[in-house]
Design a protein that fits this description.
495 residues; mainly alpha; Sodium/glucose cotransporter; 76% helix
Length: 495
């Protein structure tokens, strides 16, 4: 064990301070709430690509993906193929509608089709689920950090709960500094740096592992022969096996359509691009980047298997174990910085998107919001960002002391609404659906998702497919039962 040196601490401290300063610098001054949340569509597609990938990658991804390859094979890569296909569908089905007119959030598209009530319903649902899911994700970030700190015998006189609190507060505090001051520009440009940092962390792990494994070529060949490098899996049932090739690709595609086509934490970044063409480039390129990213961390997991073999550990514990035991002094700090980078990119995206939805979807529709000046909107935007950051941190603190199983369940809470959201947006694009039917379909989709998650053994990649189908079917059925001369899609008397 090399220990956690002064150089490692210097790397971590410099990173935290440097990323805050960089965010403040790149954020600059904002002239309006639209500039604060959308950057007036001035961000290049390459930076948006990096921001999308960084936002969807949490610290648990950094730790868990290597653990999957160490414990099993490369079946997780099938999902990323589906993710790419789903993004291509979004780029040509949903994205053109977002670039029509002056939309400020993804939920503004719903108002066009179903009226302001549905927009507010969707926005409120997004805010609640995002606060809960990302609050738990922020807490979960502290788990590997505390494991690593304990492995290095750091803070030996401090109890685990206190360490969790410290890790959460530090991550949130640094993040809120640049988010509140710099808006979405700061979020996107810091994401670019943070993506680079945790990718470098993965490359460092590979560089350290390779020389430590004698006869690497022969061992890789043996691992391949034993199925440790298998990507496409055909064992089990399509409905119950999450990594069956059809389940992973089809389910991954539909899940990606929801997460990258309707979830405002991603769509907000697409709004910041200069044109539909650039938005498409960013979205599709992010799918390719995710495949490469998963390949990197799955490779780390395979090499960990060749190095350690089987161990009485959970998959999520093997990479932290290696970091503590084998990464040389001076490089450990970079890997810790990578963990923090993965966390901060998700937290910053949550704060910005939740705040934007609050201002544009909820507050702007009130009488005071309609009459407010641009300066008032901008001041409110910063106050709202700070308020949601505090609530997000509070949500993370609530989960300290809970078991891992609860964490994993809470991290999947967003999936309860993904199916309803995707079905609702597809109905909006299709046109001709009444407000009442859309609302009923959305609520039915959420209800079906809750039942499927808790009451069935359906493979989790298919959750969103089940929810979206339920939403569309119920909405069409309600419209089919509506008598002629009822209300139209915006609640007005039909002709």
């Amino acid at each position: 064990m090399s220990g956690f040196s002064a150089l490692d601490w210097a790397v971590v401290v410099l990173y935290m301070g440097g990323i805050a300063a960089f965010g403040l610098l790149k954020g600059g001054r904002q002239a309006s709430a639209r500039d604060y949340f959308l950057s007036e569509k001035k961000i290049g597609w390459g930076a948006v690509t990096a921001s999308i990938v960084a936002t969807e990658t949490s610290a648990l991804t950094f730790i868990s993906v290597p653990g999957m390859a160490w414990k099993g094979a490369w079946g997780f890569l099938e999902l990323s193929i589906g993710y790419l296909l789903g993004r291509i569908a979004v780029a040509w089905v949903l994205l053109p509608h977002y670039f029509e007119g002056e939309l400020t959030t993804s939920y503004a598209l719903l108002e066009r089709s179903f009226g302001p009530g549905v927009r507010r319903l969707a926005s409120g649902t997004f805010i609640l689920t995002r606060i809960f899911a990302d609050g738990v994700r922020l807490y979960a970030t502290a788990i590997p950090l505390v494991v690593i700190f304990r492995g290095y015998n750091l803070f030996s006189g401090v109890g685990d709960p206190t360490l969790y609190v410290g890790a959460i507060l530090l991550t949130a505090a640094v993040t809120v500094i640049y988010v509140q001051a710099g808006g979405v520009r700061a979020v996107i440009w810091t994401d670019v740096i943070q993506l680079g940092v945790y990718v470098v962390g993965g490359v460092i792990a590979l560089a350290v592992l390779v020389p430590k494994i004698p006869e690497l070529g022969a061992k890789l060949a043996a691992a391949a022969a034993a199925g440790k490098l298998n990507v496409f899996q055909t064992d089990g049932s399509f409905l119950s096996s999450p990594y069956h090739v059809l389940t992973a690709i089809v389910g991954g595609a539909v899940l990606s359509m929801a997460s990258h086509g309707t979830d405002y934490i991603i769509v907000q970044r697409l709004f910041a691009t200069e044109s539909l063409r650039d938005g498409r480039r960013a979205l599709v390129a992010s799918g390719v980047a995710v495949i490469l990213q998963f390949t990197l961390f799955l490779s780390v997991g395979t090499l960990l298997f060749l190095y350690y073999g089987d161990l009485p550990l959970k998959g999520d514990a093997v990479f932290p174990k290696f970091i503590v035991e084998q990464v040389p002094s001076g490089l450990s700090g970079l890997i810790i910085a990578g963990l923090l980078a993965a966390a901060m990119s998700t937290v910053s995206g949550s704060i910005s998107s939740i705040s934007s939805s609050t201002v544009f979807d909820l507050w702007a529709s009130t009488k005071r919001g309609r009459l407010a000046s641009e300066d008032e909107k901008l001041r409110l935007s910063r106050r709202v960002s700070f308020g949601w950051a505090v609530l997000l941190t509070g949500a993370a603190l609530v989960f300290i002391g809970t078991g891992q199983a609860v964490v994993e369940l809470a991290l999947s809470i967003a999936s309860f609404t993904y199916g309803g959201f995707l079905g609702l947006f597809l109905l909006a694009v299709r046109g001709g659906t009444s407000r009442q039917a859309a609302t009923a379909g959305f609520l039915a989709g959420v209800g079906v998702m809750v039942f499927v998650v808790f009451g069935t053994k359906l493979a989790w990649p298919l959750y969103t497919l089940a929810g979206s189908l339920a939403t569309v079917v119920v909405a069409l059925a309600v419209d089919g039962l509506r008598p002629a001369g009822g209300t139209d899609r915006e609640g007005r008397a039909g002709a």
